Each structure stands twice: as structure tokens, then as C-alpha cells.
User: What shape does this take?
Amino acid sequence: MSFSRIVCHRFFLGLLVISAASVTLAAQSKKQPPPPPAHAKAPSPAVTDEYVHKEFGDNCSLLAGPPQFVVDLDGDGMDDLVIAARCKNPLADQAEYGFLVSDPYDSFMGFGDVKVTSTFASDEPERKGVCLLVVHGVGPEGWHSDKPKPKFVLINLPFKTVTVKRLALKKKTVLGIYMEEKGEGEETSSVVYWDGKKYRYQQLGSTLE
Assistant: This one.
């Protein structure tokens, strides 16, 4: 074999090795999808009115019945808290206690001004003021932290029961607050989830019961 052929042969072999290595590196460096979020758990010990009054004021109190959840709703790796409560006029306390009043349900229905929708009263007296309180965790202590934390009062959600489960979106899987509804949405289900900026409401359809 001539010297020029040997050189060409080695050159092509080198190209094949480089190409194979590039393909291997590209496959290794391809971004892997993140693992699914961990399932929700119950706070231990359970949250009491003392905590609620500290974080949301005396006008908010725990709602007996629905479970409490510790879960990473915003995907930052820190434990968040979800509890059902009853709050009287939360807009009056949001500046004092540093929380945000949000109405994902009526925003979905086309009513975006929470100052207006917060005045919507339920026809059922036992439903007045019923809401979900969400505390986004900060640092290793999560929702227990004494540091200022993002906090939300989600009003006008027509839930009969609540649970927290995984929700598949277009590009990722998150955790959502699933509800079986009562009132106008009786026998339907829905979910509220964090979209990176705010909480959104989404209808899921009729229940199978």
C-alpha cells in the first residue's frame, strides 16, 4: 500500500472516530427530563389556627374537614403548604401580612379584578369566605421559615373535596390542587396549578360518579 493511501486511510479512520465520539457526547449531553415531582404528604404536626393567624391574620381560620398538604407546587425544591380556611375580607389584611389575594376561578370565567370578585357572595352561608391558603417555602425550612415567603389566599374556589396530584402540562409535570366541585359545577372536577407566575384554574370535566 502506497504512503498516500496509508495517510488517507488513517485520515478517514480518524474522522470516523471523531464522528462517533461527537454522537456519543451529544447523546450524553442531551438534556434529560426532570424527575416527576414527589407526592404530597401531610404536615406533621398538623397546622393549627396559631400558624394561620401568624401568617394570614386573625380574620382567617382553619376550615375543618379538608386535608392539609405539604408539597412542592412551584417546582423550586422547597416544601410548600396548602390548607383550606375561611377568611373574612382578606383584601383588608393582605398588605399587613404580606400575602396576595388571587381568584383563579373567576379569572378563568373572565372576571379579572379581584377587588370585584372578592365581593361575590355564595348563596350558601356555609361557603362564605371559604378559600385555600398556599405558602411557598423558602430555604431549607420551607414553609416553616420565619423569612418573608410568597403567600396566597385563593378565593371563590367551589371545592367540595381537595387533593394534590401530578398534572401533565405540555413541557413538564407539575403538582396541582385537584377539586371536586359543588354548586354550579356540581359533579365536575377541576385543578388549580402554579404556572410560574400565578395560580391558574382549569376545568377537567364531569366526575364518573
User: Anything to note?
Assistant: Helices lie at 3-29, 49-56, 94-97, 104-108, 114-117.
